[in-house]
Amino acid sequence: MIELEGLTKHFGAKVAVDHLSFTVRPGVVTGFLGPNGAGKSTTMRMMLDLDNPTSGTVRIDGRHYRDLAEPLKYIGALLEASKAMHGGRSAYNNLLCLAQSNRIPASRVREVLDLVGLTAVARKKSKGFSLGMNQRLGIASALLGDPEILMFDEPVNGLDPEGIHWIRNLMKQLAAEGRTIFVSSHLMSEMALTADHLIVIGQGKLLADTSMADFIQENSRSYVRMRSPQRERVLDVLRAEGLAAVEAGSGVLEIDGATAEQIGELAARHQITLHELSAQRASLEEAFMQMTAASVEYHAHAAGEHKVPAKAPPGAPGAPGAPDQPGQPGQPAVQWGRSYEERRRRRSSRKGA
Amino acid sequence: MTTPYQQQGAPGASYTSPIPVRNTHLGDALASEWTKIRSVRSTMWTLGVMIVLMVGLGLLTASLVAAADPDLEGQSVLSLGFSGVLLGSICVMTLGVLTISSEFGTGMIRTTLTACPSRGRVLAAKAIVFFLLVFTLTTVTTAIVGALQVGIVGGEPSGEDWFRATVGVGLYVAALGLLALAVGALIRHSAGAITIMIGVMLLPLVVAIFMFSESLRDVQEALFQYSIPNQIGVLYDSAVTTSGPTGWQPLWIVMGVTAVAMAGAFALLRTRDV
After folding, report:
1. Most buried one in A14, A89, B212, B260, CB count within 10 A?
2. How far is C-alpha A74 from the geometric centre of its chain's CA atoms?
């Protein structure tokens, strides 16, 4: 269990991490998401006591990192790949010196090398390793102390599909053993496959701390996707029912505010031929974009609001009047749903023209 | 995405490793640092070159003196080892810097401090391992070179001469290396720290040589006296200057400077982000 309380980090005038409070619980994979520069790595470094927080605390099983007797047996961490080992030293020796500092037997070094599949190159200098091999070496170092808590910073970066698959399964397996897994990523699709719980940050601020399912439910729209040869009739019928349809190209209509069952029955009542009808749920990627778009947009406001109209030029073809100014300076920063709605409206008006 | 959320927060589910946890101490950090220093190529290179320089130059000067005129005008025969030690100490400084700055350069320092969050312990272990390694190697090499020189040139150095030219020089060179290690920890950049150390070693002498003005005579004298080459010479009783530090004094001076630099390195490493 890792507890963060009011964790804050300033780099000069820049606030990298801003009063971050959350708890990482055991037995699940917790995904730590945020766009590049959101403060993920800084937060992880503070959790490992590498960076000193400006204020706030991190507790690992109730203790400060510095008070852990043999930290590798509590926490294993994969830091930025290939930037955490001495390239001139062999894989075996790189791990051995870590093991010795925590009184882990040398036999365990061979064990973890075997586990990550690096036994054949154990005596080779890690300088010549590929990105994937370095990543595996980093994971071996994290697993060295057989720790209860594992932290991975962007573990799938630079890995081939086989390696990505391996890491995914490894993380799930480690979590199933009751370990606490904390993994950072900016790849939403990757998190969708591994994480059970999500912590999203943007510009150092906590945006969400929720289960994966709840996150998607709250932050994305569900809609019905439909394809029909009788497009005009469908549009008429939907309009009559008061349902909004958006054309998504190649004859596909996206309908909000109704279930697939309702649309299906509606089509049957009007004897409309359907080629496709399915309920769609926005992906994590989409939900994430929606959430962080708000924090990015806020950033643009702060820099100067004249930038905002540039996004949707007033003279843009098919733009029915200027869109609402998306928020005024000084307004609350977080207006997630809104920016998404705007993009959608813009898109629909463009398509409809 | 399909995993039911109910699993989350299941009480008492946490994992317990079969590997027992014991309190680590400085000894574990020493073992770790010993593995580190012996497993990189730069150790072999710098110390290898140091030994080659000390033995090679020591024997060369001895045989040249023996061939020309074995009369050393009252100087100890052991002072013939001076040039080898002077150049060898540059290798030691390089290794001292690299011992710590390479960790910063490669990012290994993050892994090291994750494994051992007590930063003071990490730096202490590095310093101890490095100091003992350099001290042992230098003392043994100077003893061997001294014995060979006595064999080639002849002469009977006193016990005091022997002690200062072996253990004294060993301590001096190791302390100089430790100063380089402290500078490496402060600068955290290999090239920068090595340049600074070479400057510290040679600049006072070079500046002093070109101080022609009469009004700067005192400054020039002090620069000569306290330059590192001259201090090493004092340990051999063959200093360029006649006044200034004598006997064991150079050792106390370098140890004092090193202690201050190490204290700074400890203080900064403790507070800095890595």
Report:
1. A89
2. 25
Could you tell me where the beta strands, DSSP code E, fall in B94-146? none
The residue among B17, B19, B112 with the most chain A CBs within 10 A of its CB, best to mutate, is B19
How far apart are alpha carbons B140 and A142 in whole angstroms? 41
* Side chain identity, residue A146: D
- For chain A, the structural domain boundaries read 2-218, 222-280, 284-352
Question: What whole-number distance in Å separates Cα of residue B252 and Cα of residue B258?
Answer: 10
Question: Do you know the residue count of chain A?
Answer: 353
In this complex, which of B15, B18, B28 lies closest to A103 when CB atoms are compared?
A: B28
Which residues in chain B have Cβ-Cβ distances shorter than 8 Å to A50?
110, 113-114, 273-274
Tokens of A341: 């709605």
Q: Measuring CA to CA, which residue among B229, B78, B80 is closest to residue B164? A: B78
Interchain proximity A147–B40, CB inside 8 Å: no
> Which positions in chain A touch B17 (Cβ < 8 Å)?
73, 145-148
Contact A87 B110 (CB under 8 A): no
The shortest CB-CB distance from B117 to any of A28, A51, A66 is to A66
One-letter amino acid at A178 equals G
For residue B31, list chain A residues with Cβ-Cβ distance below 8 A. 100-101
Contact, B37 vs B129, CB < 8 A? yes
Tokens of A299: 């950033």
Residue ranges of chain B with pLDDT lower than 70? 1-14, 19, 70, 73-74, 239-242
ipTM reported for the complex, 2 dp: 0.87
Query: Could you say which of A83, A88, A214 has the minimum Cβ distance to residue B107?
Result: A83
Whether CATH 3.60.15.10 fits A2-218: no
pLDDT digits (tens, 9 = 90+) for A213-259: 888 777 767 889 999 998 888 889 998 988 888 888 888 888 888 88
Are A102 and B10 inside 8 Å of each other by CB? no
Q: What DSSP character marks residue B218?
A: H
- Measured between CB atoms, does B11 come within 8 Å of chain A? no
Tokens of A119: 């036994």
Cα(A309)–Cα(B196) distance, integer angstroms:
54
Minimal C-alpha gap between B141 and chain A (Å): 27
pTM, to two decimals? 0.82
Residues of A in contact with B29 (CB under 8 A): 101
Q: Taken in order A265, A267, A272, A277, is the CA torsion positive or negative?
A: negative
Give the dihedral of Cα atoms A131, A136, A139, A144; nearest 10 deg: -130
Inter-chain contact A148–B273, Cβ cutoff 8 Å? no
- In the numeric block, which tokens belong to residue B216? 């700067």
pLDDT digits (tens, 9 = 90+) for A163-215: 889 999 999 899 889 899 999 988 888 888 889 999 999 989 999 899 988 88
The CATH architecture one would assign to domain A222-280 is 2-Layer Sandwich (3.30)
Per DSSP, B243 falls in state: S
Distances from the Cα of B164 to the Cα of A131, A212, A236, B102, B139, angstroms = 52, 71, 104, 33, 10
Instruction: Estimate the crossing angle of helix B119-153 against helix B82-106, to 10 degrees.
Output: 160
Contact A68 B117 (CB under 8 A): yes
Domain boundaries, chain B: 27-271
